[in-house]
Amino acid sequence: MKTYKIAIDGPAGVGKSTIAKRLASLFHFTYVDTGAMYRTIALYYIEKRLPLENEEVVLSHLNDIEISLRYIDGMQNIFLNGKNVTDLIRTPEVSTGSSQVAVIGGVREKLVKLQREIGEKQNVVMDGRDIGTKVFPDADVKLFLTATCEERAKRRMAEMREKGMQASYDEILESIRFRDENDSNRKIDPLKPASDAIMVDNTQDTLEQTVERIKNIIKERLK
Question: What pLDDT is recorded for position 161?
């Protein structure tokens, strides 16, 4: 059975997850947040007080981690070894940690396998760093979102405050710059647009404007 795959890549804080959720709802596809998977891996080591920068240690515990996605009231929830960690993974510490574990080949292999299995079973809108280049190079639609670091930090701070979490603009901006550097320069599957990706800079756009732009692109491509 043919399944449709929409790949949305881009740097941290550009709004990929929110936009992908909206699009998945509009097209009645399943939304998959792959960044949440890497955050969940990072959370495991942070909670265990294990060094994220030590590849040998990370790989030695990888088989102890079970990640599953469940949809509750239409929203993706992510579970770490049976525990719902959907809210726990949205802190600056976990954001930075996810970028550290994402450079490790064994971690990427584990999660790419899981992501492909999901996409082969159903129509998906999947967002991350390497969906169009690595996970689904044959995706039906590939998009690469961009926005300035400063604008992304403002958005992330507003998102955290809305959830009642403490947020420092300078701390978030530093975390975003660190992740951009790490993600773009890692040896394995670095953050970069696929050669056939459609570039969408949404620095000046509202969420609604971005969703509308991309909705029209997808409709045109899936004709």
Answer: 87
pLDDT at 113: 94
- pLDDT tens readout for residues 137-179: 999 999 999 999 999 999 999 888 888 888 889 999 998 998 8
pLDDT tens for residues 33-73?
898 999 999 999 999 999 998 999 999 999 999 999 888 88
Q: Judge contact between 196 and 142, C-beta under 8 A.
A: yes
